[in-house]
Amino acid sequence: MLRITVLLLYVGAMLLLGKSALTSTTGTAQHRLGSVLLALGVAGQGYWLYQAIHVEGGLALGVTNVTSMLGWLTAWIALFLSPRVRMVGLASMLLSITILGIAASYLPLAEPVTTDLSWQLTGHILISIAAYSLLGIGALMAAAIALQDARLRNRKPSGWLLMLPSLEGMEQILFSILTVGFALLTLSLFSGLVFVDNMLAQHLAHKTILSAIAWLIFAILLVGRWRRGWRGKKAVYMALAGFVFLAMAYFGTKLVLETLLERQWQLAGALTGF
Question: In this structure, are 46 and 6 located in the same domain?
Fold first, then answer.
């Protein structure tokens, strides 16, 4: 029941904020109501996720819960952007990701429980999820920028395009998200090396190597942005490439292990969903 309520809150917020952006009526009661519904949705989903993930004996961190968490972090970004007049449309569009994340929680996939974890490994797992989620949101932002740029070049503006900030504003948000996501990914890899025994064993080798490749791509992109002002297609393609490797590191290896091989990753002898 709570999950359905949260879903309806997000749908209502998305529609109200989207209408405010399209009709240029930001700052009105309609806009404020959309922001309130969004805040209630974020709070409700946070409580629901806590209950879904913290189960007796450990943490349930299967694909569906992690996807829902990605949607929740996206909703937090939307909540942060919603009061800003030029960002209301983007906040509305981001909520579609959140809604899809909740819809994914209904998929009949197993939710393996992570057991016997120390606080260090628990922190490593949660930091990793946050890093993957933020960089995933960054990849979606990069795809939106590419589409926005293409339609502007072809002089084919449409309703959804009018809801977005300028390309420069979109790129600023993109690199802000990528910077935070990269910092968390760096911390995730470092904590993994410190706290995870046999990082290249126990079905973790492919995940570690692919994550390291993704880290390198994002590092080059951020340095290029800082030193040479990289933007446009180069930045978009590199952001997408980095996330492809990151997605293969988590979702690809996880689905192969759990769905095809019916096995799980292990950390120091403990079964883990991450």
Answer: yes
- Which amino acid is present at 146? A
Pairing between β-strand 270-272 and β-strand 54-55 as defined by DSSP bridges: unpaired
Q: Across residues 206-211, what is the average pLDDT? A: 78
Q: Using pLDDT thresholds of 50, 70 and 90, give the confidence band for residue 84.
A: confident
Task: Assign 3-class secondary structure to 13-78.
Answer: HHHHHHHHHHCCCCCCHHHHHHHHHHHHHHHHHHHHHHHHHEECCEEECCHHHHHHHHHHHHHHHH
What value does the CA radius of gyration of the chain take, rounded to a whole number of Å?
19
Pairwise CA distance, residues 246 & 178, whole Å: 13
Cβ–Cβ < 8 Å for 65, 129: no
Whether 216 and 274 share a structural domain:
yes
Range of the domain at 18: 1-110
Show Cβ contacts of residue 143 under 8 Å, excluding neighbours closer than 6 positions.
236, 240
- The residue among 129, 145, 267, 272 whose CA lies nearest residue 211 is 129
H-run or E-run covering 113: strand 113-114
Q: How many domains does the chain have?
A: 2
> Do β-strands 113-114 and 265-267 pair in parallel, antiparallel, or remain unpaired?
unpaired
pLDDT of residue 266: 46
220 lies in the same domain as 244: yes
Inter-helix orientation angle 167-195/232-247, to 10°: 30
Q: Which residues are CB-neighbours of 110 under 8 A, at least 6 positions away?
A: 62, 258
> What are the pLDDT digits (tens) for 236-263?
899 999 988 888 776 655 554 444 444 4
What residue type is assigned to position 272 of the chain? T
Compute the distance between CA of residue 263 and CA of residue 221 in angstroms, rounded to an integer. Answer: 35
